[in-house]
Design brief:
Structural class: alpha/beta
Distance between the termini: 43 Å
Strand content: 5-15%
Number of helices: 27
Shape: elongated
Oligomer: single chain
Number of strands: 14
Strand order of the largest sheet: 2-3-1-4-6-5
Radius of gyration: 32 Å
Largest sheet: 6 strands, antiparallel
Helix content: 40-55%
């Protein structure tokens, strides 16, 4: 029953603090003693027992534990009170406006005629024997889906009767058991007060004998009735709980992926071509197989934290919150990203400097409080801090460990660049001056940078296994706007080649690059890295996609390069047009193409502009 209960919860998205409830009648003392669960410790309303089970705490009880006389009469613990006129008490309490209405309620209330000794009331997944009745407490949308699952098997519901009176004991429990059919209840004032049910909750009950068929009906109608946003939520829950769920996006009975039937067309629409999940799309893409559309990466790291309302402290230092913020933003919007750890300038913490983390409001960019090296004397004496003091590395490992626990196994090792790592040791203006006046100091710091990257790689390989690791490197400090081609050749290029050789000696095989800033004048140098076909190269908007591919190779995967400035300050129309141009240029590129921003997504990017990117990927990028 546990597997069935978990699947039911997964397909229907019940609240995390609500369990399905199984109730079993016990007709003898011996049966009661053998029943699972602890005995109730005091008298209480029957609906309170059910509420306890709905939040995860089962129990069993006898007549003396049932406080409410109405429940005792309805369930078979006591004989109904005889009245000279049926419903007279209800009428005198002003619960009904006429004696006729009160009498109708009283005469049609389902009271069970059996004599019961006790009851076992458990979360369904904890039941070791089949219960008599299953109760579900949910929102109206979920109730609709349960009814659709029921109707798929049994047709029109013929025993749904309620009056907002004795909601759990009589309408749900006694009604479903007596009629051996489903009933629905809006609950009653008594249980809403005593049980503190949410205002938007209602109840559904059916005999356990119907449960498996209702579950099968719900399962069979997911793709028929659910819109894409609900399907994506089902898919995520299925992944989380290990439940098999066959979900087809973009396909339901009214032909609309947003759950609204189109006007002016009679009948159902033809079945649409099956779209891939993000995981399927990216797995096929990297294997070189056919996919449905151009993938889109949002690079929404800090942006995700901002959208989810996380503070800087939460996003940068609570890896679980950072992971799930990114995960949720990706699947809510249909992006193809997987979460990654992001702390801008984080290497400064490893290399002996200090960062100032914003303390108020939502996540914001850290500021450099102090560099590790601030003079020629400090550069000459500089040594890397011991591994145990490298906080950024520890945070990255903690994030990757948590990601692994969530089923995400890929690990990216940084190859710097070494020159960019030096930019995390020394203030940029001072470094630029040293390129002219203190060249040996720069070379000394570059050696330390290579050492730092190599030591970090060893740690990652030891922690996660060589087979799970790939290498990526970023080149913002090598931009032609910052250093000349001559200084690139003198300083950045030798260190870049050295760290890649180090990584290859460790057995690492998969490499990728992000060319941040303008690299047009020095692009050919990156050819010397001898990247394997299918390597991932993402580009800043200042590096033309087709021209870069001509230089670095047509058999590489290229990604980019939608302007982050446009994503912040442009209109959706402008973003769509730029995305369209990139897709038309690269859609059929030999190595493959991924649409993405030119760099990390700014926290103040407009959501509607990201949607325009995705729209272009889905429409123009459709294969």
């Amino acid at each position: 029953m546990e597997e069935e209960a978990v699947e039911f919860q997964t397909l229907l998205g019940l609240a995390k603090d609500r369990h399905l409830v199984g109730v079993r009648f016990l007709f003898s003392e011996a049966e009661y003693q053998e029943a699972e669960g602890k005995e109730a410790t005091h008298q209480m309303f029957f609906c309170m027992m059910v509420k306890a089970a709905a939040v995860g705490h089962g129990m069993k009880g006898r007549k003396e534990h049932i406080y409410c006389s109405a429940a005792a009469e309805a369930l078979g613990f006591a004989k109904p009170l005889k009245e000279s006129e049926p419903g007279e008490i209800l009428y005198k309490r002003n619960m009904y406006g006429t004696r006729e209405a009160a009498a109708d309620i009283r005469e049609n209330m389902p009271c069970l005629k059996h004599e019961v000794y006790g009851m076992c009331i458990q979360p369904l997944e904890q039941c070791d024997r089949k219960p008599d009745v299953v109760l579900v407490f949910c929102q109206p949308y979920t109730a609709m889906r349960i009814v659709q699952g029921y109707s798929y098997q049994y047709g029109f519901a013929k025993q749904v009767r309620f009056a907002g009176m004795s909601g759990i004991c009589t309408e749900l429990m006694a009604g479903a058991y007596k009629n051996q059919d489903m009933n629905l209840s809006l609950l009653c004032s008594g249980t809403r007060f005593a049980g503190a049910w949410r205002d938007d909750e209602l109840g559904i009950a059916f005999p356990y004998g119907m449960f498996q068929k209702v579950l099968s009906g719900v399962r069979s109608t997911v793709n028929t009735f659910e819109p894409d946003d609900k399907k994506e939520a089902i898919r995520q829950r299925a992944w989380e709980y290990g439940v098999k769920a066959e979900v087809e996006m973009g396909n339901n009975y009214h032909g609309s992926s947003i759950g609204v039937a189109r006007m002016g067309v009679e009948g159902y629409f033809p079945k649409k071509a099956k779209s891939l999940t993000s995981g399927q799309r990216m797995a096929r893409f990297y294997r070189g197989e056919k996919i449905d559309r151009v993938p889109m990466l949002s690079c929404a790291t800090m942006y995700a934290g901002w959208q989810k309302g996380l503070s800087s402290e939460e996003f940068y230092f609570d890896v679980k919150k950072a992971f799930h913020a990114q995960k949720e933003i990706a699947w809510e919007n249909g992006y193809d990203d997987v979460p990654c750890y992001d702390l801008p300038h984080g290497e400064i913490l490893d290399l002996g400097g200090e960062l100032a983390i914003p303390e108020t409001g939502r996540v914001g960019l850290p500021l450099v409080k102090r560099f590790a090296v601030n003079s020629a004397e400090e550069a000459l004496a500089y040594e890397l801090p011991p591994m145990e003091k490298r906080r950024f590395t520890r945070l990255r490992i903690a994030f990757l460990r948590y990601a692994k626990s969530q089923g995400q196994n890929g690990v990216t090792i940084s190859a710097g660049s070494p020159f960019t790592m030096v930019g995390s040791m020394v203030e940029t203006g001072l470094l630029m001056r040293w390129l002219i006046k203190e060249r040996e100091l720069v070379r000394r710091l570059l050696r330390k940078a290579v050492q730092y990257l190599s030591e970090t790689a060893d740690l990652f390989i030891q922690e996660f296994g060589l087979e799970n690791c790939s290498v990526s490197s970023n080149y913002p400090f090598e931009s032609n706007h910052l250093i000349s081609p001559r200084n690139f050749e003198r300083f950045a290029y030798p260190a870049m080649m050295e760290i890649h050789e180090e990584m290859r000696k460790k057995g690492l095989q998969n490499f990728g690059l992000h060319l941040c800033g303008n690299h047009v004048k020095t692009m050919a140098y990156f050819k010397d890295l001898n990247l394997a076909p299918g390597s991932f190269i993402s580009l800043d908007e200042e590096n033309p996609l087709t021209e870069t591919a001509k230089v670095l190779g047509e058999d590489m995967i290229y990604a980019g390069n939608i302007s982050t400035k446009l994503l912040v300050g442009g209109t959706p129309e402008q973003v769509y047009r730029q995305s369209e141009r990139a897709i038309r240029e690269m859609k059929y590129h030999k190595g493959g193409f991924i649409l993405m921003p030119s760099c990390d997504l700014p926290i103040n990017a407009k959501p509607e502009n990201l949607k325009a990117m995705l729209d272009a990927a889905c429409e123009v990028g459709k294969y």
